[in-house]
Structure prediction request, 296 residues.
Amino acid sequence: MSDLQEVGRYASHAEAVEDGLVVLAMGEAYWMFPDEGGYVLCVQESVREAVVLELAEVSRLRSRGRGWSIQRGDFVVQRVGILSFWVYGLILVGVFLAQWFGSVPITEDGRLDALVMVRENQWWRAVTALTLHGDVGHLVGNLAAGAGFGFWLARYLGAAWGWTLILLCGVFGNVLTALLYYPNPHLSIGASTAVFAALGLLTGFGWYHSRGGSRKGHSIPEWILPILAGLTLLGMLGAGGPRTDLIAHLCGFGSGLVVSVLVSYLPWSLPTSRSRRWIGWLPLAIIAIAWTFALS
Prediction:
């Protein structure tokens, strides 16, 4: 491996891996070696100059505290903490316990009810229904899938914007579901609409970042691969079981897909990390306000 050239030295393994992901995003390989209490990142000599320039640009963006900008070739992997996942779990578990052990019939007050939503304008049910679940299996499935898709979306957008878009697209999906079923009666609960909205967001952003190219040795365009992957997961996870609300899953997935593409083509970037504090509170505020209406 004498043709390897050093492109960076790092104090921690996590920092080295993070820049290694940047190299992988360029379609190149990297090698990492422990050295004097730290780590050295190396690439092949033929690509060293391009990698050094890319890493320097990524470092510049990080130092500016710049938010995530959806530009092809301008992807910065975001660091994801565990706090937002604890909050996600606590909300779903807390509401579930209130459903089964509380004195107030919150399931009836908060579930998606197409007739009531449209006729009585109780659109806050599109939010509250996402936090309700029918049994432990339903809850655990949405906890696991939501955390999984949420993690990868947070790697793109940061946790604040990731969870905000997941919630908003889940709400859009529930609203669309109610409108499609109306004037027929339809009741549903569960975070799965938001889970499939997250899958739609990942599919759309993946398509955007891979558009306009093709893999070496393959005739299939790169942009079609995220679409196929997203549709495959949608079919595997969202279309089975007698209690599965396929329309809601499709509406959630479609909402995420459309929003991700629209956001990708915005002429301006999402707000920077300096604004993420208040953005991170937005999902909690939306849920709290919706439940205030539900219980009033």
